[in-house]
């Protein structure tokens, strides 16, 4: 049976006048800085390719694999050192601390496409994509999220210190400095002049950090927005999650969202032969070399209960 898309009001915990100015200024500022990439002085193909590779390394390994499939849904296990490396990559995407990201996403699964879902696009496409970040929501404040949905994450001292110390912003800023320093040093070692080293350092910073961050933000947010409105459904879930091929292509498999909501623990989101899930391919590679264990596949119950409903 097809789910009918209905319009929802904003969650009860949202107050229209309570703007999260930290989020507004941070996201707006990063977008503005990213626009500097349009300057010819900051353009070179090396920096563009660093950005492309960075989307994979920071976004797909950090957000998709670590924050989402590993920490939130426990779809696999990795050695702690590798898990923490992946988490640092995710932190550099500026999508909040691991505990809060996990807590909000778990709350989303509990209340998916209901009135209390923090980012359902049924309250508006722009709201589901990014609007929910700009307004304060008492239902997902840090204390509520931690005590209900992220206790297991905070048992790890590494993640606890990200909440109680300045480590989170320090990691972010240090990554910016590292990109500039690598570009600056590389140009000098390649016999470039000091001014050329400054130019390449800033180019790598703008493209490798700010443009990459903006791309990863919108790619991640598209799962919340587009993949709950447009696509087809393999499973009759209680929410409006959809399998969206365009989003899946952009996100290396996260766009098979109806499959994911039908079997959230599974580390594999592509369930049909044509549903390519490159994030799961990376997990398989890690499993092959012994760096991923207890990898969860789609459950037999879900496969047995599958009902194909091709939707427009």
Describe the protein's architecture and organization.
58% of the residues lie in helices and 3% in strands. The chain is an all-alpha fold.
Show the helix and strand layout:
Blueprint: E1 14-19, H1 21-34, H2 45-72, H3 80-91, H4 98-110, H5 125-134, E2 135-137, H6 142-149, H7 151-154, H8 157-164, H9 167-189, H10 194-225, H11 245-251, H12 257-262, H13 278-288, H14 300-304
Antiparallel strand pairs: 1-2
Helix pairs in contact: 1-10, 2-3, 2-4, 2-10, 4-6, 5-10, 9-10
Keywords:
single chain, 312 residues, mainly alpha, two-stranded antiparallel sheet, 14 helices
Number of helical regions: 14
The 3D shape can be described as globular
Q: What oligomeric arrangement do these chains adopt?
A: single chain
Share in helix: 55-70%
How many strands, which pairing sense, and closed or not: the largest β-sheet? 2 strands, antiparallel
In round numbers, the mean pLDDT is 92
Order of helices and strands: EHHHHHEHHHHHHHHH
- The radius of gyration over CA amounts to 20 Å
Q: How large a portion of the residues is in β-strands, by DSSP E?
A: under 5%
Strand arrangement across the biggest beta sheet:
1-2
Number of strands: 2
**Distance linking N and C termini:** 14 Å
Short description, anyone?
With 312 residues, this protein is mainly alpha-helical.
